[in-house]
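Methods — Computational structure assignment.
A single polypeptide chain was analysed. Its primary sequence is given first, followed by the predicted tertiary structure written as structure tokens.
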Amino acid sequence: MSSRRLKALVACAGTAAALAVPAGAAAAPADAAAMRDVLLVGNSQSGSVSFVDGRTYQNLGSFNVIPDLQQRLAEMTLVQRAGYETVKQIEGGDRFVDDVQLAADGRTLYVSRGNLDDAAAFDVATGRELWHTRLDGFHADHAALSPDGTKYVISATTAQVAEVLDPRTGAVTGKFGTGTYPHQNDFTADGRYIYNTSIGITSLPKSLELLKGDFLLEKVDANTLQVVKTWKFPHGIRPNLVAPDGNTFYAQQSYLNGFVKYDLNQGKIVNTVTMPYSDHGKALSPDDYPQNSAHHGLALSGNGRQLCDVGTIDDYTAIVNTSDLSTKGIFTYPVNSLPYWGTTSTDGTRCFVSLSKANAVSVIDYATAKEVARVPVGVFPQRERTGLAAPEAVAALTPAG
């Protein structure tokens, strides 16, 4: 898509009203003893979320998060439908699930529904959709639920804003400006701040990187939604994390076969870690990288001693020591498995890696850098999140998938 066409689409975009059915009071924590540690896997193409036992790695079943697909398509305006088709073409097909979170009650599931450009909430135990809300622009991206469960923030990619929703009703309660094509959102552990990063216009070739926009890391006050600090990066900021010290920032960047270590106080990159290319990765042109991503997936072990670096074009997962940034080990997958996200297990000992083209999740042990399990899931898994599921939610899942 040309930049002129993209700008025209963005200019025509409007904010649609939320289609919400009030879900009542905020989700209350369930009985902790009865809850089940799970990994939520967003199956982007099949429009479902797989629930994987966080300890045994058994696929417990899946939940359909696009039961209203035909309704959503029918209610789009001509401009919205044009945007939907354009994003679908850029993405290489439908991407119905971008991000997933589970509420403290263990049964309310929140989903950022990529190409549908909306967010939705479901009661997994009953299968009922509680609300859905269309966002600005044409694509709903990464999302985060605040630690107290009162705010749900989602990047509205092409609109260059992040929108904050009330998880009870789906109503938009605020928004803040971002860099170009906002991507990842993360709340600090105390819920005071939101970190938002941007990737730039991914449809432009690498030769036009100067035209891709502003690649920003923003620190935002979660209550006022005012940007309190901004850091500018030379390339699009891909999966990233702030270490427990609150100052060390690790990030993958567009086209970089590896990641950077960044000092937030000094405002500069202190290390650039270049990882080895596989034969497959070496043969690719940067413009063939999926959405500009050489490596896409980064997680930190529970003890903070290892990073899980997901080598997307290289078909491997590398475990890297944080002490000296040396490689502890690399586990290699079959060519074109497309590893595309990394999430640390609740106990901090394993890294869950989505293999998008293999329709599976790889479980990598931080201590040995070896794969300990491979779990079949739905079609084109991408984002993964951990959570605690209530027994009635697990019992209502569709077997496998």
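Note: Confidence is low (pLDDT under 50) at residues 1-26.
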